[in-house]
Amino acid sequence: MDSETGRPQTEYGKTPRTERGRRTLRKLLDAAALEFGEHGFHEASITGITRRAGTALGSFYTYFDSKDEIFRALVRDLSGGVRDAVKETHDPDAASLEQERQALTSFLRFAREHKEIYRIIDEAEFVDPASFRAHYENTASRMFARLKEGADKGELREDLSEAHAWAIMGMNVFLGLRYAVWSDDRKAMDIAEVASSILREGIAATGRD
Amino acid sequence: MDSETGRPQTEYGKTPRTERGRRTLRKLLDAAALEFGEHGFHEASITGITRRAGTALGSFYTYFDSKDEIFRALVRDLSGGVRDAVKETHDPDAASLEQERQALTSFLRFAREHKEIYRIIDEAEFVDPASFRAHYENTASRMFARLKEGADKGELREDLSEAHAWAIMGMNVFLGLRYAVWSDDRKAMDIAEVASSILREGIAATGRD
């Protein structure tokens, strides 16, 4: 998804010019998420995607040349979806630690609504390693930018580095795997509080450090 | 690997009875790690494994029925390898936060020596989902047991739950991906200090919380 326009995009410039085309592309990407999420890349098929999308096979080839190409577009689309879900609820005036708590809450909610995202992004490690890497590098960069901003405002530690962003991202990804994808009976807010409390005070007994 | 005996094991009781058999099995598992790590499950072949191991094809079938079976055995072996690497350097008398720092340092060193572990365990999500899940559930359980022990000793927060263990495990896994597998130019100890500082004090500016 393009964050400025909210429009779905393919990787190779085959952006639809009409509203109807945009809807078709959106349907294809949503169908691809279900098809790849359920069957995995190798077992998934283009006809499985168009059947789910309720579109003709010709519509598929209007936007994509191959199963590989829609998979790559889908990874970018889902990665953009994560970014946009966080962005939509982002409050630049909130305290830095609150911003991180909100970012995780939004991510957990997004993952619950798109449970297939883990399987697809994880499979990208094998099918499309560059997109896999880009997804995490971009996510970590955005988080690091927020951490630096927090440090500049004097709210966060000044020594925070990109490695801290990777650590916090890993925390969020694994909480999502366990408490959004594998089971989702606990409130997203309560799970976000687990991470938030670690970022706020660490795990040492109070008054001991 | 069996943690009591240090002997490699297969999943179905075909444990070698002789020292020579144990060496052959070990060679097959090490060769499988390289073969699956380099080619992925689908492209990897049994002959590729025996060629790397320098063993006859018959030796393979003494221990495994199929490529699937050695893959499953390998995931268990690597998962046990992570556990043993942490166990070997574990000092039960150390302070709890030091134990976690040491556990991460040992994990990072293990991951640097076995860079293929990420690709193999990640691919297990598709090839052998039960082993994938078991690996993380077992790792989180061991960590949670250490956290509870630390809380009992009064060193760690009393409200730490299994979700905190998942959060910390995620931190460690992503630091390993980024700083052990993708690049390893920074010292394992320095990367472990990143996570350790978060667990010690969180990320808020000093004196602000």
Task: Report on this structure.
Two copies of one chain form a homodimer. Chain A has 209 residues and is mostly helical. Chain A has two domains: 1-68, Homeodomain-like (Arc Repressor Mutant, subunit A, Orthogonal Bundle), CATH 1.10.10; 89-201, Orthogonal Bundle (Tetracycline Repressor, domain 2), CATH 1.10.357. Helix content of chain A is 72%, strand content 0%. Chain A is built from nine helices and no strands. In chain A, helix 8 runs antiparallel to helix 9 (188-201). Chain A is elongated. The termini of chain A are far apart. The interface between A and B is large, with 53 and 53 residues.
Brief summary of the model shown:
The structure is a homodimer of 209-residue chains. With 209 residues, the first copy, chain A, is mainly alpha-helical.
List the helices and strands and how they pair.
The structure is a homodimer of 209-residue chains.
Chain A: H1 19-43, H2 46-53, H3 57-63, H4 67-88, H5 96-113, H6 116-127, H7 129-152, H8 162-182, H9 188-201
Helix pairs in contact in A: 1-2, 1-4, 1-6, 4-5, 4-6, 4-7, 5-7, 5-8, 5-9, 6-7, 7-8, 8-9
